[in-house]
Amino acid sequence: MNRDDDDALLVAFIDKELDESARRAVDARLAADADFRARLTLLQEGGRPFAPAFQALLDEAPVDRLQASFAERIDREERLPTPIRGSLAWRMGRLGVAASVILFCAGILIGHYGPSWLARSGEMVTRAADHDDDWRQAVAEYMSLYTRDTFVMEPASQDIELTTLSAKIDVALTPERLALANLQFRGAQIFGFQGAPLVQLGYVDPTTGPVLFCIIHNFEADAAMKAERRGGFAVASWARAGRGYMLIGRLSPDQTADLAHSLETRF
Prior knowledge:
By secondary structure, this protein is an alpha+beta fold. Helices cover 57% and strands 19% of the residues.
């Protein structure tokens, strides 16, 4: 499969236009092919192959015929008496013909791609702006809004909720696998970051309050665990098998690292 075919496949994958079988095939290739993952990241951040498509449309447009008509009209009007050629109306007429060539081509592009292309252009700008602050930073920023009461899940509904979220990121989530010492599991939510599903599992520490364990299926490369601080929170994060993991809270750095290592052995 060549680069153009790969791009078309990945764009369809990003836009969720593939059926389940095709998506699984892409997932498998992304897990095994670093270059394919890098191409996905580029396309997610705005590097979509619009230019070749635009050029193909321009090639189909009758630009030569319009330009020839424009030149013929100019030649004819150049032979008009000088007073007429110096008039404002004559000069505006020439500008109008030139503009018609440009607008005709622009109209083809806009008419072909329509609102969807304009929406994707805006999306590309947004993704480029988001690139500097990755998904971990995004979580850290809204983490400050959480309280002990943010997550409320009835025990009877936990298994159903976790089964649903497991399918979103293709990772088995069970109460046993998610249990953390001295933390009460309170619920789960799913978000999206740059087209990737982001599952957020909420806990409460009796002393410091909310703690989040986040998993994103974004096909990032494997990375060893890293401890840091973001926005006043202790953070421990790692990546494995195309998924990013992060534990974040107001716990001490040592306690955060210990809990994260416990989770890393299970994920």
